Amino acid sequence: MLIRYFAAAKAATGVEQETLEFSDGAVLTEVVRHLIKLHPGTEVGHAPTLAKILARSSFLRNEVALRDFDEPLGHADVIDILPPFAGG
Q1: Which end of the chain has a smaller Cβ tally under 10 Å, C or N?
Q2: DSSP per-residue string spanning 42-53
Q3: What is the pTM of this model?
Q4: CA–CA dist 74, 26 (Å, integer)
Q5: What is the spatial distance between Cα 25 and Cα 71, in angstroms, rounded to a whole number?
């Protein structure tokens, strides 16, 4: 599964994207838990940890909004993590 990070999520992980192995049928909640363990980080100054960013983020699955965190995912899915953005 390809995980793509944007804005603050990219800053918290230090990478733009990474490919992780999950079994077919994994759900977003499992993916999020794994990402928090993989990138525990520490708060430095005003920079939040990935866990705090994920709690406020929106998610896309193959470029479509993913609102059901218990919807089964496939190993070939692309998950985009979109933290809140300022401006317009």
Answers
A1: C
A2: --BTTBPPHHHH
A3: 0.89
A4: 7
A5: 8
What digits encode the pLDDT tens for the residues 11-38? 999 999 999 999 889 999 999 999 999 9
Q: Are 57 and 9 in contact (CB under 8 A)?
A: yes
Q: How many CB atoms lie within 10 A of CB 63?
A: 7
Distance (Å) of CA 68 to CA 20, 63, 81: 20, 15, 14
Burial-class residue 12 by CB neighbours within 10 Å (0-12, 13-18, 19+): buried
Q: Is the CATH number of domain 2-82 3.50.50.60?
A: no
Distance CA 67, CA 61 (A): 9
**Domain ranges in the chain?**
2-82
**CB contact burial 43-52 (16+ within 10 A = b; e otherwise):** eeeeebbbbb
